[in-house]
Amino acid sequence: MKQYQISDEYRTGNDRIDQQHAKLLDYTWRAQELFTDENMLFKSDDIRKILEGLEYYTLVHFTEEEEFMERLGYGEIEDHRKQHDDFRMRIRSFIERVPELSLDTQDDMLGEIFDYLQGWWKSHITHEDRKYVEFERENGLLAEEA
Questions:
Q1: What phi and psi values does residue 102 have, to the nearest 5 degrees?
Q2: What is the separation of C-alpha 80 from the centre of its chain, rounded to a whole number of angstroms?
Q3: Which residues are CB-contacts of 81 (< 8 A; sequence separation ≥ 6)?
Q4: Rounded to whole angstroms, how far apart are CA atoms 140 and 120?
Q5: Long-range contact pairs involving 87-93 (C-beta distance under 8 Å, separation at least 24)
Q6: pLDDT in tens, 94-125
Q7: Each residue of 69-97: b (16+ CB within 10 Å) or e?
Q8: pLDDT, tens digit, 9 for 90 and up, residues 9-68
């Protein structure tokens, strides 16, 4: 499976952050591909793998992103952290529901996961993450410090 290539819509202007976002967006597209795969009958294990991969990688990414914002002296970091915490809790709640899935409910959950991720990334990356990248630019700070 090839990795998602980040589109201009999701570029922040910070190459390191954009590379990490591409990996996160890849999980979203994996969920969508699984959702549309009509030949696969049992999807629960794959759903769990996608969610656990997303849970792990967001921990890595969010930690690095928050440390970067701290180094920048970014004033909206606490709100940003809360958004990250809310996201992690939502992914954890999806993971906890996986053992209850049946053939009749797995595609519903995949649709719910895909819709949530797609909406969250669109809002978070295109608005919230761009704020601190813009703060970085306005203050003459270097992206290479990330």
A1: -130, 175
A2: 14
A3: 66
A4: 29
A5: 87/58, 87/62, 87/120, 87/124, 88/55, 88/58, 88/59, 88/62, 90/116, 91/51, 91/54, 91/55, 91/58, 92/55
A6: 999 999 999 999 999 999 999 999 899 889 88
A7: beebebeebeebeebbeebeeebeebbee
A8: 778 888 888 888 888 889 988 998 999 888 888 999 999 999 999 999 999 999 999 999
Question: What is the residue whose two structure tokens read 């994996």?
Answer: 30
pTM of the entire structure? 0.85
Residue 141: band (very low, low, confident or very high) from pLDDT cuts 50, 70, 90: low
Q: Torsion angle, CA of 56/61/64/67, rounded to 10 degrees?
A: -100
pLDDT of 39 reads 82
CA separation for the pair 112, 97 (Å, rounded):
12
